[in-house]
């Protein structure tokens, strides 16, 4: 597990998205062509069950509260409160109106009207994803919020997921997963009205479907296997570091955990603890590198652009300003990634596979768009009009020029 620096930059397994897009293309086309019938057939084929219904009825959502332990509901409500608090504070008024004297220029933000969220599920339950996507969407002002999640063994949705969706404010919940769910939300069926944007994590087939449909609907970001990178020095607790790595590896056999440390002792202890405690996890995907300095670790981290970055060393908080590329950063020994996954208040839907170089994690902004506007007086038109005319004529657009000329000629 202890590897050299030269190995670390090529550590991720490159995903051949073209291959997976070709795999899901027939599924997407069938859903576009046959709607609900295709959703039902693909669910039987891939999930091995027939849905009890496509849209979860309101009474079943209400009944879900009686089937979930009160302590779990309390935990969901704590998480909801913290997620709402953080995202509400960050959702400050972004509208801009600037008066330049003879003209006013501005920017106005409006919510996307309809959004679909993919919530992984099936035999497991991921209520945290419902909260992480649904709460900022509603804070942004999304009017119609749709969830799609795979069926459980009974052909329905786990009660825990239903409670989380209800607490987050979802308007519609559908029992369908995989690439067919993405197609249903993108193009609509007899039961599902299409949406304008699709967000949420999923496996390679779900992500490939999102990449395929993004020519017609917006998506949040591509997603690959989950990952953590930990920067640690000799002051770090090796048990904490090892268990943070193991927590990440339990997401998926392809999940990745990287430790960059200046301490040989810490590296060996983390490896020892992980081997002793890791059980059936894929420990081949735990990579530990001994570096010369914390600055070198930060330089490597910025090149890797991890989904989760944990900094556990002296003066850790001061190092935040040197972080350029990361989905979310966890500073200090009492800031495990698991807290961000569930209840600290930040979002766990984050860019993976190095996409943190160009994408941000899910937030209120994900569900908004902006438009600019301008209000020009006659004096403002007089001030810039000749420049507009010359540029329009230079581009061969005569009527652009004339639309200004006729205004300048009139008193």
From TrEMBL:
<feature type="binding site">
    <location>
        <position position="118"/>
    </location>
    <ligand>
        <name>NAD(+)</name>
    </ligand>
</feature>
<feature type="binding site">
    <location>
        <position position="180"/>
    </location>
    <ligand>
        <name>NAD(+)</name>
    </ligand>
</feature>
<feature type="active site" description="Proton acceptor">
    <location>
        <position position="307"/>
    </location>
</feature>
<dbReference type="InterPro" id="IPR022695">
    <property type="entry name" value="Histidinol_DH_monofunct"/>
</dbReference>
<protein>
    <recommendedName>
        <fullName>Histidinol dehydrogenase</fullName>
        <ecNumber>1.1.1.23</ecNumber>
    </recommendedName>
</protein>
<comment type="similarity">
    <text>Belongs to the histidinol dehydrogenase family.</text>
</comment>
<feature type="binding site">
    <location>
        <position position="248"/>
    </location>
    <ligand>
        <name>substrate</name>
    </ligand>
</feature>
<dbReference type="GO" id="GO:0008270">
    <property type="term" value="F:zinc ion binding"/>
</dbReference>
<feature type="binding site">
    <location>
        <position position="341"/>
    </location>
    <ligand>
        <name>Zn(2+)</name>
    </ligand>
</feature>
<dbReference type="InterPro" id="IPR012131">
    <property type="entry name" value="Hstdl_DH"/>
</dbReference>
<feature type="binding site">
    <location>
        <position position="203"/>
    </location>
    <ligand>
        <name>NAD(+)</name>
    </ligand>
</feature>
<keyword id="KW-0560">Oxidoreductase</keyword>
<feature type="binding site">
    <location>
        <position position="341"/>
    </location>
    <ligand>
        <name>substrate</name>
    </ligand>
</feature>
<dbReference type="InterPro" id="IPR016161">
    <property type="entry name" value="Ald_DH/histidinol_DH"/>
</dbReference>
<dbReference type="Pfam" id="PF00815">
    <property type="entry name" value="Histidinol_dh"/>
</dbReference>
<dbReference type="GO" id="GO:0004399">
    <property type="term" value="F:histidinol dehydrogenase activity"/>
</dbReference>
<comment type="pathway">
    <text>Amino-acid biosynthesis; L-histidine biosynthesis; L-histidine from 5-phospho-alpha-D-ribose 1-diphosphate: step 9/9.</text>
</comment>
<dbReference type="GO" id="GO:0051287">
    <property type="term" value="F:NAD binding"/>
</dbReference>
<keyword id="KW-0479">Metal-binding</keyword>
<feature type="binding site">
    <location>
        <position position="226"/>
    </location>
    <ligand>
        <name>substrate</name>
    </ligand>
</feature>
<feature type="binding site">
    <location>
        <position position="395"/>
    </location>
    <ligand>
        <name>substrate</name>
    </ligand>
</feature>
<feature type="active site" description="Proton acceptor">
    <location>
        <position position="308"/>
    </location>
</feature>
<feature type="binding site">
    <location>
        <position position="251"/>
    </location>
    <ligand>
        <name>Zn(2+)</name>
    </ligand>
</feature>
<keyword id="KW-0028">Amino-acid biosynthesis</keyword>
<keyword id="KW-0368">Histidine biosynthesis</keyword>
<comment type="function">
    <text>Catalyzes the sequential NAD-dependent oxidations of L-histidinol to L-histidinaldehyde and then to L-histidine.</text>
</comment>
<keyword id="KW-0520">NAD</keyword>
<feature type="binding site">
    <location>
        <position position="251"/>
    </location>
    <ligand>
        <name>substrate</name>
    </ligand>
</feature>
<feature type="binding site">
    <location>
        <position position="400"/>
    </location>
    <ligand>
        <name>substrate</name>
    </ligand>
</feature>
<dbReference type="GO" id="GO:0005737">
    <property type="term" value="C:cytoplasm"/>
</dbReference>
<keyword id="KW-0862">Zinc</keyword>
<feature type="binding site">
    <location>
        <position position="248"/>
    </location>
    <ligand>
        <name>Zn(2+)</name>
    </ligand>
</feature>
<dbReference type="GO" id="GO:0000105">
    <property type="term" value="P:L-histidine biosynthetic process"/>
</dbReference>
<feature type="binding site">
    <location>
        <position position="308"/>
    </location>
    <ligand>
        <name>substrate</name>
    </ligand>
</feature>
<feature type="binding site">
    <location>
        <position position="400"/>
    </location>
    <ligand>
        <name>Zn(2+)</name>
    </ligand>
</feature>
């Amino acid at each position: 597990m202890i590897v050299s620096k030269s190995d670390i930059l090529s550590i991720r397994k490159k995903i051949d998205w073209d291959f997976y897009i070709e795999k899901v293309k027939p599924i997407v086309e069938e859903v576009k062509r046959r709607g609900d019938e295709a959703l039902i057939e693909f669910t039987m084929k891939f999930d091995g069950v027939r849905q009890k219904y496509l849209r979860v009825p309101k009474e079943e959502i209400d009944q879900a509260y009686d089937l979930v332990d009160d302590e779990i509901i309390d935990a969901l409500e704590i998480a909801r409160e913290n997620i709402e608090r953080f995202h509400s504070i960050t959702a400050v008024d972004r509208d801009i109106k600037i008066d330049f004297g003879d003209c006013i220029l501005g920017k106005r933000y409006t919510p996307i009207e309809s959004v679909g969220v993919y919530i992984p599920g099936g035999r497991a339950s991921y209520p945290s994803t419902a909260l992480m996507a649904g709460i900022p969407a509603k804070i942004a002002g999304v009017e119609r919020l749709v969830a799609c999640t795979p069926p459980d063994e009974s052909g329905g949705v786990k009660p825990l997921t239903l409670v989380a969706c209800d607490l987050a404010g979802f308007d519609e919940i559908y029992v369908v997963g995989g690439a067919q769910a993405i197609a249903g939300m993108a193009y609509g069926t007899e039961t599902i009205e299409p949406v304008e944007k699709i967000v949420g994590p999923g496996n390679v087939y779900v992500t490939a479907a999102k990449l395929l449909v993004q020519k017609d609907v917006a998506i949040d970001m591509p997603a690959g296997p989950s990952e953590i990178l930990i920067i640690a020095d000799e002051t770090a607790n090796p048990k904490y570091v090892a268990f943070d790595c193991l927590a990440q590896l339990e997401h998926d056999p392809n999940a990745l955990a990287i430790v960059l440390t200046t301490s040989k002792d810490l590296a060996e202890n983390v490896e020892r603890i992980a081997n002793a405690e890791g059980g059936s996890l894929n420990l081949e995907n735990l990579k530990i590198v001994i570096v010369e300095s914390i600055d070198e670790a930060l330089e490597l981290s910025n090149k890797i652009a991890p989904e989760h970055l944990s900094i556990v060393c002296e003066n850790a908080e001061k190092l935040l300003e040197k972080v350029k590329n990361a989905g979310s950063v966890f500073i200090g020994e009492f800031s495990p990634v698991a807290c961000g996954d569930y209840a600290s208040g930040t979002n766990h839907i984050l860019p993976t596979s190095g996409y943190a170089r160009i994408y941000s994690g899910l937030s209120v902004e994900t569900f908004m768009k902006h438009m600019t506007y301008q209000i020009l007086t006659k004096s403002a038109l007089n001030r810039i009009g000749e420049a507009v005319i010359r540029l329009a004529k230079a581009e061969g657009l005569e009527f652009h020029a004339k639309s200004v000329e006729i205004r300048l000629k009139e008193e």
